[in-house]
Amino acid sequence: MKKHYFLYLFWLLPAYFLFLTLQQVSVYYGMKTTYENGSSYVAEVLDFKIKRIVSQRRGYITVRFNTEAQKSKKITVSVSGETIARLSQFKTVPIKYNEGGYIEAVFLPTYDVQTSFILSNMAMAAVAFILTFFVGIWAHRKAARLSKSGEKELVFERVG
Fold it and tell me: Is residue 83 in some structural domain?
């Protein structure tokens, strides 16, 4: 196998950043849809779980509320560290709930924080995609140039 063929694998990086960008777009529109079309409830906060991994904080919040059909609903939602810090101040929290939606629950006191967090993630992933896309074009051209010049084959030998 010729070693310059490994340069074509660089295209996996821009593909991954494109996937991240599209995923953040779908999360944003899922939140927006739940906020606009979801039913409003006042939920009782049951539990917080905060996980610290290196310098990141991630949390889970469990809430319970009664639906319009007087059915008790208990959900656990994963939220960012900033959001969990703000929600820890409440015993009851207003939410918008859209059962079956891409994002089922949106906490109204932290909607702006969640939205700005998602938009910043989307922007970073888009910038990373654009940068790696242009580096990918360079790597593709270099691999094609090396392929035409007839560089030696890469041989793997087992030693010992």
Answer: yes
Q: How many domains are there within the chain?
A: 1
For residue 36, the model assigns a pLDDT of 93
pTM of the predicted structure, to 2 decimals: 0.77
Q: Which domain holds residue 61?
A: 3-149
119-127, long-range: CB within 8 Å, 24+ apart, which pairs? 119/28, 121/20, 121/24, 122/21, 122/24, 122/25, 122/28, 125/17, 125/20, 125/21, 125/24, 126/17, 126/21
pLDDT score for 160: 66
Considering the domain boundaries, does residue 105 fall inside one? yes
